């Protein structure tokens, strides 16, 4: 019998792919969105599944900062995949505007699910909650970012505090079964042109907006693998009470640029490494650049062994994930 899965924030980059994969395997999906009018956008993105699958897709309006709609959203649901969380690309003036929706929204979803008798929840967190201020080599799921680390942004703190809030809720409600997925920079092929902020990182490289790129690493993962981790967790009892690094490996910006340049030689993709002293100087005038200064030239490794063991994951190579984004952008 098909399960009824609630996917929060279904208009999101990750959520659309999760909804697609759930529907493709025969599940029934209800998605929350802040504006009902965006339901057609989601249907269009998933259209190649066919009318039978789309008949198993429905929507309900609900906002992370309001109780309205959440009880109705959880009615008759078997499990929740909570992806909804703000992800800004521009500078935040007041970090409470991003931290409050992430933390309060997570508590709201979990408490409403618990009240509705829905015990199974898969939460989308981030490598941002794993990798900052961490010296482990390789880093694993036991690592937690230090919110006071000099590399932490408002977004990073929102992911740390939201995930902490989820685990605190579980400590007080032992009947709840939580799995947390921690993706890195999400590349790959988007479902439609409404892409995530991760894609904008590759788009900036493709557009040749910078003369050089910093020697700075990020953990890379393909969108298909992010979705696969969430979906697999629903059927993996071993994943209950666990968090999972969801990334293939760390890749530097110069390596990403060289990978893209080899595929698109006619584009003005910057491959020259920006000297660390120059990035450091720019950091004096730009708070966003200042965040990456402590990580310049730092080599980081991660282990996704737990996801391979418990979720059956074999990750798409990071270079291929980056190229898939590049091909999507070039075609667009």
UniProtKB/TrEMBL annotation:
Which InterPro entries does the record associate with it?
A: Epimerase_deHydtase, NAD(P)-bd_dom_sf, NAD(P)_dehydrat-like
Does Oxidoreductase show up as a keyword for this record?
A: yes
Keyword terms = Oxidoreductase
Enumerate the spans annotated as NAD-dependent epimerase/dehydratase domain: 5-242
Q: Which Pfam families does the annotation name?
A: Epimerase
- The transmembrane segments are none
An example Gene Ontology molecular-function term: oxidoreductase activity, acting on the CH-OH group of donors, NAD or NADP as acceptor
Keyword Electron transport tagged: no
What family name appears in the similarity comment? Belongs to the NAD(P)-dependent epimerase/dehydratase family. Dihydroflavonol-4-reductase subfamily.
Put simply, this protein is called NAD-dependent epimerase/dehydratase domain-containing protein
Provide the species name: Thioclava pacifica DSM 10166
């Amino acid at each position: 019998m098909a399960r009824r899965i609630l996917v929060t924030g279904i208009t999101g980059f990750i959520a659309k792919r999760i909804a697609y994969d759930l529907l493709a395997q025969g599940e029934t999906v209800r998605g929350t969105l802040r504006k009902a009018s965006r339901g057609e956008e989601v249907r269009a993105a998933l259209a190649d599944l066919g009318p039978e699958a789309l008949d198993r897709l429905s929507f309900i309006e609900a906002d992370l900062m309001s109780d309205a709609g959440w009880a109705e959203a959880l009615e008759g649901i078997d499990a929740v995949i909570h992806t909804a969380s703000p992800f800004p690309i521009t500078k935040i003036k007041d970090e409470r505007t991003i931290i409050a929706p992430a933390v309060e929204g997570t508590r709201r979803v979990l408490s409403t699910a618990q009240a509705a008798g829905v015990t199974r929840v898969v939460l989308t967190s981030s490598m941002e909650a794993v990798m900052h201020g961490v010296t482990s080599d390789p880093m694993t799921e036991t690592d937690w970012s230090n919110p006071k680390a000099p590399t932490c942004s408002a977004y990073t703190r929102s992911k740390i505090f939201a995930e902490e809030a989820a685990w605190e809720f579980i400590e007080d409600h032992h009947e709840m079964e939580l799995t947390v997925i921690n993706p890195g920079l999400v590349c790959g092929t988007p479902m439609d042109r409404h892409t995530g902020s991760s894609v904008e990182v590759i788009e900036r490289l493709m557009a040749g907006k910078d003369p050089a790129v910093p020697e700075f690493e990020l953990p890379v993962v393909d969108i298909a693998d992010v979705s696969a981790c969430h979906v697999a967790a629903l059927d993996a009892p071993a994943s209950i009470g666990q968090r999972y690094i969801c990334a293939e490996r760390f890749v530097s910006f110069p390596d990403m640029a060289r990978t893209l340049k080899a595929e698109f030689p006619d584009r003005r993709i910057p491959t020259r490494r920006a000297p660390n002293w120059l990035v450091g100087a720019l950091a004096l005038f730009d708070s966003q650049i200042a965040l990456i200064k402590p990580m310049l030239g730092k080599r980081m490794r991660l282990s996704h062994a737990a996801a391979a063991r418990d979720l059956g994951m074999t990750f798409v190579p990071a270079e291929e994930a980056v190229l898939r984004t590049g091909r999507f952008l070039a075609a667009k």
